[in-house]
């Protein structure tokens, strides 16, 4: 019970510290410290609960055991990261979002595509990934190409819908003013409509950044070479090596958060004029 007592004392101390910090004048340092303390508190409580109640590591390993396995398995984790994130998720993200962006411009130019493609897109977006992944794995093989194809399917329509809506963000007076200046379609697109659409486009990119990694990992459950995050998770669960599973989850969480953060930083630089960035 000493572990449980230590956990309670630590939790109360961190709670008091966070309450004190929350009353201070807000700044970037405090905005970083508060969630850091919160995350550290969760890890310490996790450690104390598992040790205090003597929970089997097969069910829930301690954070220190996960950290030790992480440190001892960096070469394996790196190979899995490259296979899943760089080759599968990132390539599929670039292809899917790029194709969706170009399609959105075509949809904006064609009323036929607006009436026909978007309803089909809503239907395809509703298809379960666990149903599509095995089919795409059979079509494109067991290597990263099939995982990229799954990611393309997952990110294409969310990006398409956000971009199409963004192209409608400029109002009629602004578009009429561009016509008065004699601007053609592509001049109005580059000078007015795309800048106005940037908040919508980046919203789609941030949504797709999380979908891409999820899609690549799930696709690996249905067939992959002997590497990749999804492959490693499924095989290590079968071997009851839950510390390795949590190490892979940690890598996925870090990679996904960093990817999302990079897109958010680019958004802040590009859409500095938007009220949401002030």
Give the helices and strands, then pairings:
Elements: H1 2-22, H2 28-52, H3 63-72, H4 74-109, H5 111-125, H6 129-140, H7 144-167, H8 172-180, H9 185-220, H10 229-238, H11 242-270
Domain ABC transmembrane type-1: 97-268
Organism: Paramylibacter ulvae
Protein name: ABC transporter permease
Characteristic terms for this protein:
mainly alpha, flat, transport
End-to-end Cα distance, whole Å, is 49 Å
Helix count, DSSP H or I runs of 4 or more residues: 11
Strand content: under 5%
Can you count the beta strands? 0
**Secondary-structure content class:** mainly alpha
The radius of gyration over CA amounts to 23 Å
InterPro entries: MetI-like, MetI-like_sf
Pfam family, one: BPD_transp_1
Transmembrane segments: 28-46, 58-79, 85-107, 119-142, 148-167, 200-224, 244-266
Subcellular location: Cell membrane
Verbal overview:
- Keywords: Cell membrane, Membrane, Transmembrane, Transmembrane helix, Transport.
- Residues 97-268 form the ABC transmembrane type-1 domain.
- It is a multi-pass membrane protein.
- The chain crosses the membrane at residues 28-46, 58-79, 85-107, 119-142, 148-167, 200-224, 244-266.
- There is one protein chain.
- By secondary structure, this protein is mainly alpha-helical.
- Helix content is 82%, strand content 0%.
- It has eleven helices and no strands.
- It is flat, with a radius of gyration of 23 Å.
- The termini are far apart.
């Amino acid at each position: 019970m000493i572990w449980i007592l230590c956990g309670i004392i630590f939790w109360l101390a961190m709670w008091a510290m966070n309450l004190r910090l929350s009353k201070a004048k807000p700044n970037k340092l405090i905005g970083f410290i508060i969630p850091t303390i919160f995350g550290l508190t969760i890890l310490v409580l996790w450690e104390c609960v598992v040790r205090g109640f003597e929970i089997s590591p097969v069910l829930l390993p301690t954070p220190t055991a996960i950290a030790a396995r992480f440190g001892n398995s960096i070469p394996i984790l790196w190979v899995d990261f490259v296979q899943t994130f760089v080759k599968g998720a990132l390539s599929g993200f670039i292809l899917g979002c790029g194709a969706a962006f170009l399609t959105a411009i075509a949809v904006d130019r064609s009323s036929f595509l607006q009436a026909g493609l978007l309803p089909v897109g809503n239907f395809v977006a509703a298809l379960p990934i666990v149903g599509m992944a095995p089919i795409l794995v059979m079509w494109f093989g067991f290597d990263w190409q099939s995982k990229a194809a799954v990611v393309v399917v997952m990110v294409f329509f969310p990006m398409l819908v956000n971009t199409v809506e963004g192209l409608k963000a400029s109002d009629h007076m602004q578009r009429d003013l561009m016509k008065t200046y004699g601007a053609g379609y592509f001049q109005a697109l580059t000078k007015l409509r795309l800048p106005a659409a940037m908040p919508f486009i980046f919203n789609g990119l941030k949504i797709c950044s999380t979908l891409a990694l999820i899609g690549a990992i799930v696709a690996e459950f249905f067939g992959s070479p002997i590497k990749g995050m999804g492959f490693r998770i499924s095989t290590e669960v079968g071997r009851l090596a839950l510390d390795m599973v949590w190490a892979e989850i940690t890598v996925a969480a870090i990679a996904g958060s960093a990817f999302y953060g990079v897109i958010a930083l680019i958004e802040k630089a590009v859409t500095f004029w938007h009220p949401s960035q002030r």
